[in-house]
């Protein structure tokens, strides 16, 4: 087109330049240089180049505004997931890893956690997560920031995950803690006698509790029958003891104190958390079933987080709720605290910190089946005007007790096979990193009245301490590199070995 115009101009010039009344006054004011054809073409070219640059600038500006406002309504499919997400989200996931190896170096410079915008309750965003269809993502609440994505899994995928969980032995030994609760579902799980607790803690059975025995218990994360608070109290008691060990008598005293103070301090939320269900863990890393692999990539696309972070998350937790099964309202993550350390970064951390907690930036919950009746997921305080922990339990009504008060929750969601829920357990710290625990993310499972409910939880673990998370990821990369040095083809990130003890 440019070519054409130039030729036209040329012919105009050469044709009747002298006879044109418009051209001649203009030309006469110009310098003699303008007379030649070559120079007037150059002038035209300059104008056209300027014009094109201007248009390109406008287009670039429009694109910039578009992608900065709504961080990509469209998210790429399973296959190309991380690469194209990081293109769209370049300001946020600037250093998102194109390959698993190199990201850790960039990490320390700029690594932030994208957050999906809720806009308002009922707002719908369109996602392209798989190649053959688009998904709608609906904002369900802003406190917590909660989304629903119907049809996130196909029927077939739901079935495969359920079957894999059954294969993994969902009914088997992994359920000791919850099967206890099943026998005595109306009592707190903490129904062991002091002697039993002592004996369980006394690993070498010498009738004395040494410090390492208590500490090792806190690290096993098998804290269903002793809360981390209890353990800390017991340790404090032990340290006050001149011998540095506790016999049964001393333990009795310390244990009694730890139980009392635990109840006074944290009330129901920690000491009497009740649930009744069965669960298992499915690894999603290298060598896992392709459906599990696909699912994890889809979570990466959905959350828009760097894929390395999602890959380092806990394995997929699959839970089965039969008739009457439930879980009390709880938070999936933990408040940041100077005396706590995130379980997932303990490798990089201080072995002397005692209390390990789960640090889960967000939860993606999948309904793998639709319970016929009951089994709703409840968010008792979603979008409540204010949050007040005391108000959860008052006038004999306990909003965290899903067996009694499920119907009173602010938001209840009926399980529908294939639907995914995504919510953030933490607020943003305002600088692109994970901030405080979002109290509003309190949620529980109402008792199943008819049918069986299967759900799966996918968690993305992040340490609120940016440096600690950075150290941890460096460490993982080092381990990985050491390994891949020995086995050349062992390239993709696979950290199932780190999760063996979860
Ligand atoms: C470990 O803890 C000690 C004291 O509690 C502290 O001085 C040190 O900096 C910590 N190290 C790391 C890596 O956090
Ligand atoms: C929910 O909001 C109301 C109104 O502000 C308040 O009275 C009530 O205590 C809140 N509930 C909880 C559990 O915080």
Automatic annotation (TrEMBL):
Cross-referenced InterPro entries: EF-hand-dom_pair, EF_Hand_1_Ca_BS, Oxoglu/Fe-dep_dioxygenase_dom, P4HA-like, Pro_4_hyd_alph, Pro_4_hyd_alph_FE2OG_OXY
Domain Fe2OG dioxygenase: 312-462
Cofactor(s) the protein requires to work: L-ascorbate
Pfam families named among the record's database cross-references: 2OG-FeII_Oxy_3
One GO location term (cellular component): endoplasmic reticulum
Region described as Disordered: spans on this chain: 1-28
Keyword rRNA processing: no
Residue spans of biased composition, Acidic residues class: 1-13
TM annotation in the entry: 42-67
Keyword Transmembrane among UniProt keywords: yes
Any one GO molecular-function label of the UniProt entry: L-ascorbic acid binding
Key words of the record: Calcium, Dioxygenase, Iron, Membrane, Metal-binding, Oxidoreductase, Transmembrane, Transmembrane helix, Vitamin C
Low complexity bias: start-end ranges: 14-28
PANTHER family: PROLYL 4-HYDROXYLASE ALPHA SUBUNIT (PTHR10869), TRANSMEMBRANE PROLYL 4-HYDROXYLASE (PTHR10869:SF246)
Protein name (Swiss-Prot/TrEMBL): Transmembrane prolyl 4-hydroxylase-like
Organism listed in the record: Scomber scombrus (Atlantic mackerel)
